[in-house]
Amino acid sequence: MANENDGQMNFDDWDDEAKAFYKSRKEAKEKRKAERMANSGDSFETRDAWKPPFGEMFKDVIIESDTPDIVSSYNNHNLAIKLTLSDGTPYNFWIAMYPTDDDGEARMRKDGTKIRRQEYQEYLDLKEEVRDLLEISEEGNIFPFKCNFMRVKEPFSFTDKNGNERSGEKNALMVEPLNISIDEVQHELDSYN
Description:
Blueprint: H1 16-38, E1 58-70, E2 78-84, E3 90-96, H2 118-133, E4 145-159, E5 165-177, H3 182-191
Antiparallel strand pairs: 1-2, 1-4, 2-3, 4-5
């Protein structure tokens, strides 16, 4: 009788180096999760990180809330967007808010304001569009709301201070707010629990 795991290696069969690597990756992931929790206050809910592929549209995404300025080992300014996909799967989507210098602090413009990353600016713009679409005052709560959501890569180019042409790609969001009331979205969200 053949074993259903024939041909598959189980963890006990891994060599010590592979086990050590796997354990170190798992420990690093847990450490990052603990750091985010410690730096975000009591209201932050740990969820798996959502890493949507670029160029794929996700329809009817529920944005539940966001938590800014979470410190990580990479920089001091991250935004965690608490969201639920249309199939009811909850995630956190992470966006770096600002480009940072070597110590993790936001880079500044000459006028003293922070330079915003494009994904972050587009998320802020989405929130304003939701506010306008649902006719919610500046002081009013906009969460939860629904949107269609896609990450894209956009080309950019510039001339540096030495006159050299530079180019690359930057992460961007293509988002569309949906005209569905907060109560309706909350009712759907409650049905997933």
